[in-house]
Amino acid sequence: MNCQVGVFLAYIHPAGQTLIDRRLYLQSWTKDANKRLKSAVPNAIEFATKPQLAKQMLQSAFESGLRPA
Question: What residue spans define the domains of the chain?
């Protein structure tokens, strides 16, 4: 089975909303060298749980200057 799941970071405000970041949840892809090679997933990418991906995206957004209202 070929299945990809994304984790998304959105900013929601009464005036509107926007997607800020996205990451692929690559559970089986990081463990399979053949899949990694065929899909061009860099070796530097390591498996991260969905909560870990969300934390990484929040940290990146805050480091980039995002300051929620």
Answer: 5-63
